[in-house]
Amino acid sequence: MNMSFMGYSIFRIGCISALLVCTFISNTSFARGSHAFWISKTHTNLNKIENYSATMELSTSTNSTPVISQVKFKKPYDFQLIISSPDDLKGLETSFNNRSILMHNPINQSVLKIDGLKSPTKESKLEQVKSIYWYNQEHYEQVFTP
Q: Do the bridges between strand 100-105 and strand 78-85 make them parallel or antiparallel, or are there none, so unpaired?
């Protein structure tokens, strides 16, 4: 009778252990699946954008004056950001178009232009979305709001 009781306990412990291992594996798989879902969804949604124009305002804890920028995007690869205020940054421009990056600082009367860049591919855009996603996962608190 002792042996059957002991056998029952070993069986029970084995089942509980198997259940815990399966739960851990399924949660880990679900998390990876969830990340893959959000990466894919972000990539798909970004590919739907044809033209985009906006005003951005960025405030930091070290400076009470916000930085206001005008942002323009036109598919496939034209991007431009120009700072409109504060006055000490006004006119700074960064852009990418026609396989060139342009950084213009009218305050210091300097320009940096890099030509001959490759246009992004579908694969490189996906890799960029993945790297930004994982960077955000690592550095920012993630709050799920259904």
A: unpaired
